[in-house]
Design goal:
The structure is a homodimer. By secondary structure, chain A is an alpha+beta fold. Helices cover 16% and strands 29% of the residues of chain A.
Chain lengths: 394, 394
């Protein structure tokens, strides 16, 4: 038997216990829970085959009561002795995409971000569209290109047309960007024709991850009228490997900013699901931004209620992201297009003036929140490196 | 042994052989092929377990060479005697969603439709956006709400704001509409970072279905800026139960309309994949439109090349639809918003003046094309009935 030690101040204490999918040499991917700097093999430790699967989906489908029970089981297990062979150092395992993604939806829930992008993309119009304060604006993205942290990102090619150019040209994106977001993973699906209310959020949503919604701004700005972003986003979306259970986020729950006008009844929460999550963006190892999730105008419960109010069904593994997290200050902006004001105001990165991503650049987004034990818990990070365009398709 | 008889003039002759998933009382859903008015149980007739599955995905994943070989096997089989118990009258089986949907993309490839909607949604601007003739405009829809023909459609609720109203209200859509489209089913997926060229279309795409992309126009027109349609579409998308193999559409292949300006190289086809498919829309049993697919500006091969040119991967079961098929004539428009010009010019249906869908209305969209045997082949139909809003979520 092994006794787990959790380093002082660890972001992965007993009040966190995030789930992931990991593998070790010669063994198939399976579900693990992170405790301190260790990964506990749950199939082995708990003897339950639902954890011997390569995704969290079968476990998530078992529902909220079961999530609570397993969390108690794990707490008991890791407080005592864990069977030999069920504990691996986190540095010795490979982490995989933790869930099979169903539908992927991306919202646009930061007022600061939406107003900044409005000013940049539509300088002659009001920064916010008339609908923005009435509903959480969102759209569907490509579920099949969601990848786990650490996956390299090949610079996308596509049609780009700068304002002064007569016709579009084809080639690698010249304005490759990031979007620092939080993502929410549906655990218990809902039937077609059965909207999920705001207050059912915690019953349905299993947990949260960090999302980097890579964005090719030049492709996006040419293609996006009138049906929205498509190829400017669909080449890759990265998520962090650890799904932090919503059960671990009770101490992070805060009010959302004042919502004026008052939302329609289906968007009202008995108690708001704002989240006091601190995010940080590192560009080639240097911190360039600290987006505050607590500034988000719409809560993830409101996003889920909106997404299903028309009767749309949900499935275990559906992922919906918040949209770029930006605060009111310049150093709190979660996308480089905002941080550098469309490329016009470079930021210093390791002594260089930088605007958009160059080949070889690496971005890591991390996040922490208050835990229920008085300290903080971590989401880990989502990391990705930009590789040169392959030129295929030209 | 049973000898199959194919009625004279059947749209399901030996030059069609579409695949579906069917069940009979007490037996699990499995793959069948339609011949005349019969469904042949392929697992039983060919003794191959890949057809004993509830979706076409495992068979589609086997690739183009295998699709060709199985088509030859089936032709041989149904020309002779078929094992007893492997043949069912089509009226005696239940038809299911034939494939597990991965990502769902909806294009906007009819110039007539895009121009009509431009005039209706943005009366003060040019009907086509500047990008429209440079790329097949498209966006992601909700894969999880794709349903098979015959599934009832509950009228969606949502936020609606008419031009004269000060604020949005919540309630059932008052402008529920259809969109008659063709959909293309990816059979062999492609890797992230590996664009699919136009000329690889037939290697990758397994077949085609009819699509009804139900649309709540009042929800859509309020929500769609700036990120595109979302809840106005995501409540349901219906597909026909038979997937007509691309191998059956050789005689339907025609040129696309002249494309001016000339598309960028990645959108050029050695030989165009326009399709001479005749569609028909019935509203409560009365034909109200005959959309001509051959009028579509962009081909499905160009759509696939565009969708992947940024390196986005594809999977077996990915569905992409053409967008509403509308021809130049009024009687060729594939959506009621166009057919009735925003509701201002009602059409006569069974003696009534009609604009948008009422509860209890039923819409059936059918399609046929030239077959390789000199006659025509059928796609069957996609049918759906509108049920009243449930009021849930209000």
């Amino acid at each position: 038997m092994t006794t787990l030690t959790i380093p002082d101040g660890s972001l992965f204490g007993l009040d966190n216990l995030p789930y992931g999918v990991f593998s070790t040499p010669g063994a198939a991917p399976r579900v693990g829970v992170r405790v301190g700097d260790s990964v506990v093999d749950l199939a082995r430790a708990l003897g339950d085959d639902v954890f011997a699967r390569p995704t969290l989906n079968p476990f998530m489908e078992q529902g909220h009561r079961r999530w609570t029970a397993v969390r108690e089981q794990i707490t008991e297990l890791v407080s005592g002795d864990v069977p030999d062979g069920a504990v691996h150092p986190v540095g010795a395992v490979t982490l995989h995409l933790p869930f099979r993604v169903g539908d992927y939806v991306d919202f646009y829930a930061s007022e600061h971000h939406a107003a900044n992008l409005g000013r940049l993309f539509r300088p002659d119009a009001a920064p916010l569209m008339p609908n923005w304060k009435h509903l959480p604006v969102g759209y569907h993205g490509r579920g099949g290109t969601v990848v786990v942290s650490g996956t390299d990102i090949v610079r996308p090619c596509g049609q780009r047309k700068a304002p002064g150019e007569a016709a579009p040209t084809f080639g690698p994106s010249r304005r490759l960007d990031i979007e620092a977001e939080m993502g929410f993973v549906v655990g218990t699906g809902s039937e077609q024709g059965s909207p999920v209310s705001c207050d059912d959020f915690a019953e349905r949503v299993f947990g949260a991850v960090i999302v980097n919604d890579w964005s090719a701004r030049d492709i996006q700005s040419w293609e996006y009228v009138p049906l929205g972003p498509f190829l400017g986003k669909s080449f890759a979306t990265s998520v962090s490997p650890w799904v932090v259970p919503l059960l671990a986020l009770e101490a992070a729950r805060v009010d959302t900013p004042v919502q004026d006008p008052r939302p329609l009844p289906y968007l009202r929460e008995s108690r708001a699901w704002g989240l006091d999550v601190d995010m940080a963006v590192e560009w080639n190892g240097q911190e360039v931004s600290r987006p505050p999730y607590r500034e988000m105008y719409w809560s993830p419960a409101q996003m889920l209620a909106h997404m299903t109010v028309n009767g749309a069904s949900t499935r275990a593994g559906d992922l919906y992201a918040s949209g770029t997290v930006s605060g009111p200050e310049k150093g709190q902006r979660g996308a480089f297009i905002e941080l550098t004001w469309g490329g016009g105001e470079p930021v210093g990165v390791n002594g260089e003036e930088r605007t958009f991503l160059r080949d070889g650049d690496e971005v890591a987004i991390s996040a922490t929140a208050p835990g229920t034990a008085g300290g903080r818990i971590g989401f880990g990070e989502v990391r990705g490196r930009v590789l040169p365009a392959t030129g295929a398709g030209e």
